[in-house]
Structures are given as structure tokens and as C-alpha cells.
Amino acid sequence: MSKRQHHARRNSTERQIPGWLWLLTGMALGAFIMFIAHLSKLKEEGTTNSAPAQNKTELPKLKVPEEVKGPVFEFYDRLKQQQVEVPEYEAPTEAQIEQAATHEYFLQVASFRNENDADKLRARLILMNMNTSIESSKMQSGETRYRVIVGPYLNKSKLAKARQDLVSEGLEYLTLKRKIEK
Q: How many other β-carbons are positioned within 10 Å of the β-carbon of residue 145?
């Protein structure tokens, strides 16, 4: 086979339209034709129904009593006659909420091997106006770790605000929940 014959045969196979595309096109065309046929039937039904209506004799109109002009709402009258007593409600103070709390929440921002690194982060968090402390803990390996802790928070909304502040500063945290010992 020469180069021209090979090139011509390759181009003819590349230009063929796949069978699924023909099928899809045929289905879309058929659906469109059915839609047009349905619309024409609706139009014919609409014109045939309107013509006999003109030939019919008019039915006598019913008389509506004048006293019933619209809906009657009794709610407003009943509301004026009734009274509902609302008991006095005092919103709990923050001290009452704290007293009722059974758990407190902390945010562990980091854990360091070196106490100086923990102190630098603590200073940064204090500048962000956060209540911060450093807790030291002994690991099983005998190594001492210094955890930077923010909190305590008894109110979940204050906890959420602290989380948002840490995220805005690019700091990750771990939420700790501890039972309050009374």
C-alpha cells in the first residue's frame, strides 16, 4: 500500500460519526417532533372547546345575599377579649451559667519539648487577649512536654470565638473537655 492510500484510508475512518451519536440525534429529533405534535393537539382542542361555548345559552345568574361580601375573621375580636398572662422571666446570669456547668473546655494549641518555645507561643496568645497557660507533662519515655493551653471556657459560644481567633491567626488546636470537680 502506498502512503496516499494509507493516508486516505486513515482519514476516512477518522471522519466517521459513531453509531451512538446517530442514535442520540435520532431520539432527540423524534422527541422534538412528538412535542410539536402534542402542542398542535392542544391548540386544536382549545379552539374546538371555545366554539361551542359561544353557541350555548347563558345560565341564569345566582343571587348572592348582600350581607355576605367576603370572609369573616373572628380572630381579631377574640384576641381583644382574651388576656394571656406571661410569667416573669429572668435571664440567667453568667455566674449562674458557670455554676450550672458540669464541664469546661480548653484548647490545646501546641506541645513543645522546649519550655522557651512554649513560652513564646504563650506570649503571642496573650497579645491576642486569650487566657493562656502552660502545662508540663511527663511522657512514658521520661521526656517532658510543655503544652500551651487556652481556656477554660464554660460557654460554647466563647469557645467558638476562641477557635475562630486561633484559625484566623493560622494556628491549629485540639479541643479538650474536662469535668469540673466541685
A: 15
Average pLDDT over every residue of 31-36 = 93
Q: Which three cell numbers stand for residue 88?
A: 416573669
Give Cβ neighbours of residue 53 (< 8 Å, ≥ 6 apart): none
Whole-angstrom distance, CA of residue 148 vs CA of residue 110: 5
What pTM value is reported for the model? 0.44
3-state helix/strand/coil string of the chain: CCHHHHHHHHHHHHCCCCHHHHHHHHHHHHHHHHHHHHHHHHHHHHHHHHHHHHHCCCCCCCCCCCCCCCCCCCHHHHHHHCCCCCCCCCCCCHHHHHHHCCEEEEEEEEEECCHHHHHHHHHHHHHCCCCEEEEEEECCCCCEEEEEEEEEECCHHHHHHHHHHHHHCCCCCEEEEEECCC
